[in-house]
């Protein structure tokens, strides 16, 4: 059952990712990208990380995609679509096939070691995934969390400055 | 039985597709979306290995990747709007003002 769900979702994710790269209209790419994000959220649930799945849907499929679609609509790119919309297919195909081959080689002939950490399925089901995430984030990773908030502030200021007509 | 290798292979495939899109497309927004595909494939790797190892650190990393992706979306799209205002295009072939 899990295998069927995995392969089905993986097929949908890969096909929609291919369509992201191949659609002529950027809006179609954006909609296919949302499908990919939803498939990845399904994988996060299968990996017993429901909080990450919720964050994936809220932040990626919600916030970031709304921003991208908004910009596509704002720029009115339908007029700017040219005849040729790709370039360098041969070189990029060779490079991505090489990436895929090397990764496949490592995955096939390597072994993912290092099992047996403290967070098992029983721990997740007794504590809850959100509590474990919160504990790790606000105890072990408090300083990176604060730095991330400063990064977001800088990004907001930068976006406002860049898109203003006259500073 | 689905093992961690399945997830790793899937994220390798998604990463390769994203690389292909980044290198072949001309539209800057589509390139941006292909970068998001690559970031998401890395997120899938982090979460799969985090569950495999039994440690929460990988999932915290995913949070920071998402933070960086959100900041990148805000700044990158603002850059594209500023560029479109000057050039009336977001084709990467038109991004040649620094060319000599």
Biggest beta-sheet profile of chain B? none
Note the beta-strand portion of chain A.
under 5%
Helix content class of chain A: over 70%
SSE order of chain A: HHHHHHH
Q: Which pair of chains forms the biggest interface, and how many residues does each contribute?
A: A-B, 86 and 73 residues
Q: Residue share in helices of chain B?
A: over 70%
Low-confidence runs of at least 5 consecutive residues of chain A = none
Shape assignment of chain B: elongated
Strand tally of chain A is 0
Radius of gyration of chain A: 20 Å
C-alpha-based Rg of chain B, rounded:
17 Å
What is the CATH topology classification name of one domain in chain B? Helix Hairpins
Q: Return the structural class of chain A.
A: mainly alpha
Terminal CA distance of chain B: 57 Å
CATH class of one domain in chain B: Mainly Alpha
Shape of chain A: globular
Total number of helices of chain B: 3
Q: What does the model show?
A:
The complex is a heterodimer of chains A (167) and B (100). Chain A has seven helices and no strands. Chain A is mainly alpha-helical. In chain A, helix 1 packs antiparallel against helix 2 and helix 2 packs antiparallel against helix 3. The radius of gyration of chain A is 20 Å and the shape is globular. Chain A starts with a helix and ends with a helix. The mean pLDDT of chain A is 89. Chain B has a domain of 69 residues: Orthogonal Bundle (Helix Hairpins). Chain B has 100 residues and is mainly alpha-helical. Chain B has three helices and no strands. The mean pLDDT of chain B is 90. In chain B, helix 1 runs antiparallel to helix 2 and helix 2 packs antiparallel against helix 3.
């Amino acid at each position: 059952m899990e295998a069927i769900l995995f392969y089905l979702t993986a097929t949908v994710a890969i096909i929609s990712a291919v369509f992201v790269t191949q659609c002529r209209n950027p809006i179609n790419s954006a909609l296919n990208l949302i499908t990919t994000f939803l498939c990845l959220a399904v994988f996060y649930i299968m990996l017993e990380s429901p909080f990450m799945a919720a964050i994936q849907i809220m932040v990626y499929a919600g916030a970031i995609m709304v921003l991208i679609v908004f910009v596509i609509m704002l720029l009115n790119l339908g007029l700017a679509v040219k005849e040729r919309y790709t370039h360098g297919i041969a070189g990029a195909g060779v490079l991505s096939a090489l990436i895929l081959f090397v990764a496949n080689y490592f995955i096939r002939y390597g072994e993912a070691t290092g099992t047996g950490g403290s967070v098992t399925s029983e721990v997740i089901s007794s504590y809850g995934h959100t509590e474990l995430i919160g504990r790790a984030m606000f105890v072990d990773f408090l300083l990176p969390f604060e730095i991330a908030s400063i990064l977001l502030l800088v990004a907001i200021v930068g976006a406002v400055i860049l898109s203003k007509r006259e500073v | 039985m689905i093992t961690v290798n399945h997830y790793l292979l899937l994220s390798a495939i998604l990463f390769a597709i994203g690389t292909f899109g980044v290198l072949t497309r001309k539209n800057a927004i589509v390139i941006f979306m292909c970068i998001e595909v690559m970031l998401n494939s890395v997120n899938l790797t982090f979460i799969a290995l985090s569950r495999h190892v039994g440690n929460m650190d990988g999932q915290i990393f995913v949070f920071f990747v998402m933070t960086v992706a959100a900041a990148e979306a805000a700044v990158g799209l603002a850059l594209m709007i500023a560029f479109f205002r000057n050039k009336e295009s977001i084709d990467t072939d038109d991004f040649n003002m620094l060319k000599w």
